[in-house]
Amino acid sequence: GPHYYIMHRPSKTVLDLTYDQYEFDGVPVPYHLGRPVKIDANGRDVVIRFLNAVGVDFTTAIKNIDKGRL
Asked: Which residues pair with 7 in a beta bridge?
């Protein structure tokens, strides 16, 4: 099924809270097959909660989202 993650597009750095569900079975997540989605107001809140969970400075991240860089 679908797998959701955040990728910083300029650096290709992946933030994925659920990567271990695949690595546990020895299956690498094929990030190269991913595609961007438009982030609406609700999706933006989801991204902020995700970034907070992984300890990322969401203030900087949200500025990048607003500029279409995340």
From this structure: 14
